[in-house]
Design brief:
The chain has helices at residues 56-63, 97-113, 128-139, 167-173, 198-203, 219-229, 261-270, 293-306, and strands spanning 36-41, 76-77, 84-89, 117-122, 142-147, 177-185, 206-208, 233-239, 275-282, 313-314. It is of the alpha/beta class. It has one domain (25-87, 117-314): Arginase, Chain A (3-Layer(aba) Sandwich). The mean pLDDT is 96.
Length: 315
């Protein structure tokens, strides 16, 4: 009988001590036997405004020590049914964005070859493109739930084709995603041109801009997205700047008028049952939030995403 990993209990070892792994889970040196692998991608050389997301994985792991293993809202108990471990950080090349993206792709090829579901702690949003390349190579073009203030459909930024603001355009061009099963939630702010958001709609992408969501419960929208995705493999990418800066100030490209944390929880809860083949949470920049609120929010959202992974049971 397989003994499933459990986070270290705060009643056994004080939460301010112990390993700096996600939720103080065991750190694994091998993928063997894992259902879900949590990994850090400490990179922010793909950003165009404020840096600091390279510190995201360390701070998110630190704040995750407060999270307990049972979800009291949804009754999900991920550690009762899935073998989960933290496999540490990818050794990216901090001086080269192209080489770092190559490292991410090759690392994900190895993870997915073992039928392990990856959960990435970013890092900036440029990490999602090589992840999608590996995921699509295994599963074919995937559905995408993209929670973000920005559409990330720029053709280039400072002459670079692969950055945090271009990943969705490249994913569409390379047919890594299914356009009519791609959903963008939380878009807002100013743009470079009038068509910054509308172009993706022309590809078939469904958009739920933040100004249409103010004061709304996102449960129904999440249920609608889940129904339209059906059983198709889906990847979830959650940019912390989708939240209003009053909830998550520590991010590289903040925009006012964003989602609330209750709305983020409503959305994730409503996605329960999707065939998720991986997820990431990106753009947490701890230097812009010394209190740690953003990192705590990110850690909590990652736990919520873990709670909707396939195979999770309820208590």
């Amino acid at each position: 009988m397989t003994i499933l990993n459990q986070p270290i209990s705060g009643n056994d070892l004080a939460r301010f001590s112990g390993p700096n792994t996600f939720m103080r889970l065991p750190q694994a040196d091998t993928l063997a036997g894992l259902d879900v692998a949590v990994l850090g991608i400490p990179m922010d050389i793909g950003t165009s405004w404020r840096t600091g997301a390279r510190f995201g994985p360390k701070h998110i792991r630190s704040e995750s020590a407060i999270i307990r293993p049972y979800n009291m809202a949804t009754f999900a108990a991920p550690f009762d049914s899935l073998q989960v471990a933290d496999i540490g950080d990818l050794a990216i090349n901090t001086f080269s964005l192209p080489d770092s993206l190559r490292i991410i792709r090759e690392s994900y090829d190895a993870i997915l070859a073992q039928d392990v579901t990856p959960m990435a702690i970013g890092g900036d949003h440029s990490i999602t493109l090589p992840i999608l390349r590996a995921v699509a190579a295994k599963h074919g073009p995937v559905a995408l739930v993209h929670v973000d203030a920005h559409a990330d459909v720029n053709d280039e930024m400072f002459g670079e084709k692969e950055t945090h603001g271009t990943f969705l355009r490249r994913a569409h061009e390379e047919r890594l995603i299914v356009p009519d099963k791609t959903f963008q939630i939380g878009l807002r702010g100013s743009g470079y041109a009038a068509g910054d958001f509308t172009e993706a709609k022309g590809w078939g992408v469904r958009q739920f801009p933040a100004w249409e969501l103010w004061q709304q419960n996102l449960t129904l929208i999440g249920a609608q997205i889940r129904k339209e995705i059906g059983d198709h493999p889906v990847y979830i990418t959650f940019d912390i700047d989708s939240l209003d800066p009053s909830f998550a100030p520590g991010t590289g490209t903040p925009e006012i008028g964003g989602l609330t944390t209750p709305q983020a929880l409503q959305l994730i809860h409503a996605l329960g049952g999707v065939n998720a083949v991986g997820c990431d949470l990106v753009e947490v920049s701890p230097p812009y939030d010394p209190a740690g609120t953003t990192a705590l929010t990110a850690a909590s959202l990652l736990f919520e995403l873990l709670c909707i992974m396939p195979g999770v049971t309820s208590r």
